[in-house]
């Protein structure tokens, strides 16, 4: 039989070649798409950390957050508790210091001396500190009633130091001593103090401070039995005694007479000498 020739209208070998080229092109497109998908997956995996690392980070964040918050809460609690414990005490201390700073304070120290005979009749020493303003005053009078007064402004804390010295020497503790004789010079001490809204004052007198400091001996106590009006020799041998010497009276007088500047002492000495010559 004669061979049939392909019909030019049906394509023949050209159609088969085109078909093969189409299949190859489709295959290449599919492979390219797969390669791109693989590349995208690789990029995505590279951009995201591994799963176990992400889980570890999440657990770390979850662990750290409560600890930080707990520390902050504790710090606030400690601060509030400390304020409640110490604020009241500190406020009380502040008010106490402010009350002392703003309160009125004053010191008045006086020594009045009365001479039973001689040209000088009286002497007065006065030391005053009124809220930090200090002065010393000395006055001397004769038998005619003439009184000369001298004042000195005291700068600094000399009056306060004198007050401390007088307190140390017993100005708040010594009591009145009865006069030994009517011919003795009489000393009267007065102290007044105001501080922190409270005030105190006392006065005591004595004579012959040198006697009480040096010559005073002992005081003896005799116990008398109601059935024995006259003490026996045995009673006299067992007498109780106490020392009556008290040098602090003389120290008080010396504290007053020693106070003041050299110029003030020269003025006092000059005034006394003038009265003694009159």
What is this structure, in a nutshell?
With 278 residues, this protein is an alpha+beta fold.
User: Helix-strand pattern, N to C?
Assistant: HHEEEEHEEHEHEHH
Q: What is the domain total for the residues?
A: 3
> pLDDT average, as an integer?
76
Q: Mind telling me the C-alpha Rg?
A: 56 Å
Topology of helices and strands:
Blueprint: H1 13-47, H2 51-102, E1 106-114, E2 120-130, E3 133-142, E4 147-154, H3 158-168, E5 186-195, E6 198-207, H4 209-215, E7 218-221, H5 233-237, E8 240-243, H6 248-258, H7 262-277
Antiparallel strand pairs: 1-2, 1-5, 2-3, 3-4, 5-6, 7-8
Question: How would you portray this structure in words?
Answer:
With about 280 residues, this protein is α+β, with helices and mostly antiparallel strands. The protein folds into 3 domains: about 15-45; about 50-100; about 105-275. About 50% of the residues lie in helices and about 25% in strands. It is built from 7 helices and 8 strands; from the N terminus they run H-H-E-E-E-E-H-E-E-H-E-H-E-H-H. The chain has helices spanning about 15-45, 50-100, 160-170, 210-215, 235, 250-260, 260-275; strands at about 105-115, 120-130, 135-140, 145-155, 185-195, 200-205, 220, 240-245. The strands form 2 sheets. Strands 4-3-2-1-5-6 form a 6-stranded antiparallel β-sheet, with helices on one face. Strands 7-8 form a two-stranded antiparallel ribbon. Helix 4 (about 210-215) crosses helix 6 (about 250-260). The protein is elongated, with a radius of gyration of 56 Å. The N and C termini lie far apart (about 190 Å). Mean pLDDT is about 75; it is low at about 1-15.
